Amino acid sequence: MTKKDKKSFNQSLAEWKLFIYNPTTREFLGRTAKSWGLILLFYLVFYGFLAALFSFTMWAMLQTLNDEVPKYRDQIPTPGLMVFPKPVTALEYSFSLSDSSSYEGYVRDLDNFLRSYDLEEQKNLTACPDGALFEQKGPVYSACQFPRHLLKDCSGQKDTEYGYSRGSPCILVKMNRIIGLKPKGQPRITCTPKDERTALITTYPSGGHIDLKYFPYYGKKLHVGYRQPVVAVQASFNLNNTRKEATFDCIIDGSPNLKNKDDRDKFLGRVTFKITVNA
Predict the structure, then answer these.
(1) Which residue in 42, 96, 110, 150 is deepest, having the highest Cβ count within 10 Å?
(2) How far apart are the C-alpha atoms of 151 and 80, rounded to whole Å?
(3) Quick one: how many helices (H) and strands (E) in the chain?
(4) Contact in structure between 157 and 148 (CB atoms under 8 Å)
(5) How far, in Å, CA of 157 to CA of 109, rounded?
(6) Whose CA is closest to 277, among 92, 105, 110?
């Protein structure tokens, strides 16, 4: 048959049928049953070996990990700061005094967060002595109480709207948790408005003080019931201004081993947020 000759449809169909199954040689798709068996056995052994190797590697790696404390931890010795409730837009709080729905989300988030700080929720926690690190050797680790009333006007116990309805909103500032962190001195969170003519700041506990008894932190699994210390910041604006707006800087201060300045990380030990209160 020359290149110019074309196979008929019946010839092509017959060749395909013969390729699928050849009754003379008993080949299926060009291979005998023995050939198919050998190749399937090869791939079964090959992929079985790969699966076993992967499983062994994962098992060996897991043996090096501690179920309670991360093997590799952040090398940054100073925690960052974060604010709560979470603002709708990046680190900007905005609401209107005449529209309670504009701040009810903030109030609800604060209620939910501070509920775990009620004394009833902390009755099984330890009333630790003030002013000293609460170091423990385990295997059982106790968590210190952080009474909600320490936040005073921002506790939500007297003012259930946390000052938002009066135009003096409360913002909670807290340090990120770092396992094993042991601050020195008298750590505190200091907050100041960028322009003191536009707003004033009151912090709770007084002076933004964070007691050493809440350190060190031993991890979520070991330190069951741990209550993270928080500082409440309440902003007060000039009542004569229709639109109240100010930017606030908060930093970790008072501890020589906790930094609030770093050329490589401008957020180390500090946070900046903005509050806008409309009429």
Answers:
(1) 110
(2) 21
(3) 3, 10
(4) yes
(5) 15
(6) 92
pLDDT tens by residue, 169-212: 999 999 999 998 999 999 999 999 988 888 899 999 999 999 99
Token representation of residue 203: 């912090």
Q: Is the peptide bond between 139 and the residue preceding it cis, with omega within 30 degrees of 0?
A: yes
Strand duo 199-204 + 270-278: pairing? unpaired
Which residues, given as ranges, of the chain have pLDDT below 50?
1
∠ CA 185-189-194, nearest 5°, is 135
The region, left, alpha or beta by phi > 0 then psi within -120 to 50, assigned to residue 81 is: beta
Q: What stretch of H or E contains 191?
A: strand 188-193
3-state SS assignment for residue 82: strand
**CB-CB contact of 189 with 229 (8 Å):** no
